[in-house]
Design brief:
This protein is an alpha/beta fold. It has helices at residues 14-25, 59-62, 77-89, 99-115, 132-139, 154-166, 170-179, 188-191, 194-208, 227-235, 298-313, 348-351, 375-380, 400-403; strands spanning 5-10, 31-37, 54-55, 69-72, 94-96, 120-121, 145-151, 218-219, 239-248, 253-263, 276-283, 287-294, 330-331, 336-343, 356-361, 367-374, 391-395.
């Protein structure tokens, strides 16, 4: 596809308008946005487009013979699925930023790419401006890759940064994130860990060649963090970060989860603040490599989409080579974790069975326990851990011997 790319764009919100700006600004892209499909053509927007470009009819894009690339940045996962699958079945390449839709449907989307001999790129779906997907796809063999771990959600990281670096309380930091557009009016998707989970699902396919359903991955967010947890972390000289990780536990097995984590100053992600993302890739021979960049905001995401547009101009596609390996590792939750659990009225010691208790503290202001528990058993207690008086954080144990 070395000729000019003519784009059919679905969605014209913050990211869509960012895409319009960066495509028009990038002269070497040899691309133009021919039509834009929106729900309401009369809605006032910050970016003006020529008359006749906006439409509320999807068929105006799919039936235009000049459009040779679909870019979709809609905020509705079901609509995104309909757009992407229609494009692939029509033999039109797609660039997408919809991490929820991709994570839920990736096996089918891979099959459609093969069946209709077209391509779908989605670097923008994971970590905003960081090209983590393409790097994992091309440069890291899964035999040598041991771990991908990092801060994948800019909104929750901004909130925690305001708390730990600026002394703000959690509710005030959340409100500021919403005012700046880093968090939605309903921030549940970000602070629950779901956004990080969907990105981790996609990353794991390109890191290890294995797809795991989102519902099979333990995920815990930051919505119930208490002042006592913040004080405890400060006393220990650490920060709390919402961290997602996929890690090989031995030659044939791997595990993955999303949880708040106590992060010490010696770790790369300790200094990843505000709306930035940071990803650490660890391997047998190259130890750790670190990728850093903005993970929230319209223009950072749009720049990643532009990178995919340019890649399609040169015929690039994901080959999913690792999914065809004979010895892809198996997913397991039979691994031991060390966790911190804050509780007030819920009887955590009486209701949960731990393999080992390292520390237990009780006071009128709140209680906590530090203990070892398998990820499998932690998942069994998931509904109990949803109580509003409970906060859970991971205390890292993987690769401690290599980090000393």
């Amino acid at each position: 596809m070395n000729h000019k790319i003519k784009i059919g764009l679905f969605g014209f919100g913050t990211v869509g308008q960012g895409v319009y700006r960066v495509v028009n600004r990038a002269k070497n892209a040899h691309a133009e946005i021919r039509r834009i499909c929106v729900r309401d053509t009369a809605k006032k927007r910050d970016v003006e487009v020529p008359e006749g470009v906006l439409t509320d009819r999807a068929e105006d894009l799919f039936e235009d013979p000049e459009i040779n690339l679909i870019v979709e940045v809609v905020d509705d996962a079901e609509a995104s699925y309909r757009i992407v699958t229609a494009a692939l079945r029509g033999g039109i390449p797609v660039v997408s930023g919809s991490k929820a839709m991709i994570a839920e449907h990736l096996p089918e989307l891979i099959r459609l790419q093969h069946e209709y001999r077209t391509a779908m790129l989605y670097d923008a779906s994971s970590c905003g401006s960081i090209p983590v997907i393409r790097n994992l796809e091309e440069y890291y063999d899964n035999d040598l890759l041991l771990e991908v771990k990092g801060i994948l959600n800019g909104s929750s990281n901004y909130i925690l940064s305001r708390v730990f670096d600026h002394g703000e309380d959690y509710s005030g930091a959340l409100l500021k994130a919403q005012k700046l557009g880093f968090a939605e009016s309903d921030p549940t998707f970000d602070i629950s860990g779901k956004d990080s989970l969907y990105k981790l699902i996609i990353i794991t396919v390109h890191a290890l060649g294995v797809y795991i359903k989102p519902e099979d991955v333990f995920t815990y967010g930051i919505s119930t963090i208490h002042d006592a947890d913040i004080r405890y972390a400060r006393e220990k000289g650490v920060k709390i970060k919402l961290v997602a990780q996929v890690v090989k536990v031995d030659e044939s097995r791997f595990t993955m989860f999303v949880m708040p984590e106590f992060v010490s100053p010696s770790r790369y992600i300790y200094s990843v603040d505000n709306e930035y993302n940071g990803v650490v890739i660890r391997g047998e021979c190259y130890d750790r490599q670190f990728m850093f960049g903005k993970g929230a905001g319209g223009l950072p995401t749009a720049s990643s989409i532009l990178s995919d547009i340019m890649a399609r101009r040169h015929g690039y596609r994901y080959e999913y080579k690792k999914m065809g390996y004979m010895d892809t590792p198996e997913y397991t939750t039979d691994v031991r974790l060390k966790v911190y659990i804050h509780y007030e009225t819920t009887d955590i010691p009486g209701k949960m069975v731990f393999e080992r208790i390292h520390e237990k503290y009780t006071s009128s202001a709140g209680n906590y326990i530090i203990a070892d528990i398998s990820l499998r058993n932690l998942a069994r207690y998931r509904s109990l851990l949803d109580a509003p008086d409970i906060f859970l954080a991971n205390i890292p144990v993987f690769f401690l011997d290599k980090d000393d």
